């Protein structure tokens, strides 16, 4: 996971250094370079090394085209329901095909992201827990493997999968909180006001 983040940041930096004044061209270059990296990685590494990388590109495109997409999808209930049904259908199809077709897991990840985006277009869940997750998404993303690895050594994942997921999530949230607090203290020492 960290590998994917670092590679994507490097790709984005390179793309936008080469193409400085046009966000669309920069996003296109980022997407093209990401596809090249995924193609190369697919020869040497398992899918989990690259299967979410295109979600980053998709998010970049959504950010650039958000107003246009939402104008098309949200303003018309029929179109919204049609897009939502298509995303649900694609999600369940890709769930079955994700391991059978080349780059199926990448497509499955993107469809899942599209489905979540569509679901949140009409509903704005406003609660403190989701706010916490959003504020700490980076910390959660980079720290999630620690409790997972520890509990796998105790074989919880195989014998108690629900307990494994719940404990992993709770421990990761605690680690994310501690990590953020430590980084805030470090920032104050390194960059005093």
Describe the model:
It is a single chain. By secondary structure, the protein is an all-alpha fold. Helices cover 82% and strands 0% of the residues. It is built from ten helices and no strands. Helix 1 (2-18) packs across helix 2 (23-44). The longest helix is centred in the last third of the chain and has 30 residues, at 161-190.
**Order of SSEs:** HHHHHHHHHH
Quaternary form: single chain
Q: Mind describing the biggest β-sheet?
A: none
Low-confidence parts lasting 5 or more residues at pLDDT below 50?
none
Helix and strand composition category: mainly alpha
What's the shape?
A: globular
Q: What's the total helix number? A: 10
Number of strands: 0
Mean pLDDT: 86
Strand fraction equals under 5%
| Percentage of residues assigned to helices | over 70%
Cα distance, first to last residue? Answer: 34 Å
Work out the radius of gyration: 19 Å
Outline of the structure:
With 193 residues, the protein is mostly helical. It has helices at 2-18, 23-44, 53-73, 77-97, 104-122, 128-135, 137-143, 145-153, 156-159, 161-190.
Architecture blueprint of SSEs:
Blueprint: H1 2-18, H2 23-44, H3 53-73, H4 77-97, H5 104-122, H6 128-135, H7 137-143, H8 145-153, H9 156-159, H10 161-190
Helix pairs in contact: 1-2, 2-3, 3-5, 4-5, 8-10
Summary tags:
193 residues; mainly alpha
